[in-house]
Amino acid sequence: MSLELKTFLAFRIIEKNLEPIKRPDLINPDDLLFIDDQKEKLIKNTHCFVKGYMANDVLLWGRRGSGKSALVKSMLFRFKDEGLRMIQAYKSNLEDLAFIYEYIYDKPYRFILFFDDLVFSEKDERFSLMKALLEGDIEQRPDNLIVYATSNKRDLTIEKLQDEKFPEDSLNDAYALVDRFGLRLGFWGFSKEQYINIVKHYVKSLNLTWNEEFEKEADRFALNAGGYSGRSAKQFVKYLTVNLCYNKNHG
What we know:
By secondary structure, the protein is of the alpha/beta class. Helices cover 44% and strands 15% of the residues.
């Protein structure tokens, strides 16, 4: 495992083992626009963690397509040469995390345990396991492991509170989990102007010349895609390059 940790940057949990990811999605944080406050806070937190200081577990919540997952992955790009590694985890792995502790406990690397798009349905027993992972388990978590999670839900749950006899109990449980994340970063939708500027950024990176027709097409694309977001901006640029490629070869 030591050789793999030196060779590979990212891993996923497969049947109580860490499987190396040979081609991780490395995102430059400089390419993530209009989330400067969230970016600054996450970089500071990750920097201190990588340097061996105390740092917070982080919950990134908010609108879909707003850059939450991309921002977490960009930390690997930013700090990979300083010993940072990333482990992709899922709710189904929560019962088996103890083996990870043994793998990484004495390793000279720092690990982000990354839960993407985390949400718990009604009566999900793994809700309590997640609380124990963050704080409260009898086993001490290794100092070189931190938890970053993204979710579209601020309280991480999709409980139907109106159908419960004591809905305040479920709310208290939800907040008890969220409160275990020492740093909580909210993400909101982009304006049209921000969305267009993100599209321009991607277009420029492809050495394409911007024109007004691109802006009109980008606006139409976003409306059909469900709104202005970083994800729809990237999808539009792919759509644009497909059309340009096709026209070039069939013009």
